[in-house]
Design goal:
seven-stranded mixed sheet, 7 strands, Aminopeptidase, 5 helices, alpha+beta, single chain, binds coenzyme A
Length: about 180
């Protein structure tokens, strides 16, 4: 079976508490983590990632049940950080999600940032990243990282705009 190698960047940022606050456009609201919201996080993740490049790199992201499994795995991680895990609500639906965990280091790790297609370009992705960084800072962390597929240029630009810098290039092998 053919193997495809996807170029990925690890990007990092220092946290000094001075980064811009995570503000939302009018009519959008932050929804803090609660156990009962696990399936809503999974659904927004699925609606955000299906058909996108990361659903090729991580096929579970393009599958509703895969996203439910992934959310449960993230929730079970010992370093899961509720204060870095948020939904955005519009008047009609949940439309954005981010989860954060504390990795060895300690360092904050942004897991998945997703905004459903109809709500993109409004600044919600940027706000989600900043909100997770605020959560890391409040949890005592002073550095954070994420990994992004190089082809996902919109996401790379977003992370650069927030202040992340490329620390390492990685290759993810995917079967098929
Ligand atoms: C990446 C994603 C979260 C961006 O969400 P968004 O709400 O549209 O992003 P924002 O409106 O906050 O954009 C903030 C900045 O990011 C950059 N950006 C975001 N999407 C972009 C795109 N498609 N093309 C170019 N730049 C983009 C721009 O610099 C933008 O600033 P500007 O509006 O002042 O030009 C969204 O496209 C998404 O969910 N994609 C699918 C899932 C995914 O790939 N997530 C990232 C995994 S690492």
């Amino acid at each position: 079976m053919a193997i495809t190698y996807y170029k990925r960047f690890r990007m990092e940022i220092d946290l000094d508490g001075s980064s811009a606050t995570a503000t939302l456009p009018p009519r959008f609201a932050w929804v803090a983590w609660e156990e009962s919201l696990i399936d809503q996080h999974a659904e927004v993740k699925y609606l955000s990632f299906r058909g996108e490049i990361d659903a090729c790199v991580f096929p579970c992201l393009g599958d509703r049940h895969g996203c439910q499994r992934l959310m449960r795995e993230i929730r079970r991680k010992p370093g899961f950080l509720p204060q870095a895990t948020w939904l955005i609500a519009s008047p009609d639906c949940y439309c954005g999600t981010v989860q954060g965990v504390m990795d060895r280091g300690p360092i904050g790790a942004i897991q998945n940032v997703g905004v459903v297609p109809a709500y993109r370009g409004l600044g919600l992705g940027r706000a989600l990243v900043r909100k997770a960084l605020e959560g890391f800072y409040q949890a005592g962390l002073r550095r954070a990282y994420l990994e992004v597929t190089a082809e996902n240029s919109g996401a790379v630009l977003l992370y650069r705009a927030v202040g992340f810098r490329r620390a390492k290039t990685l290759y993810k092998a995917v079967d098929g």
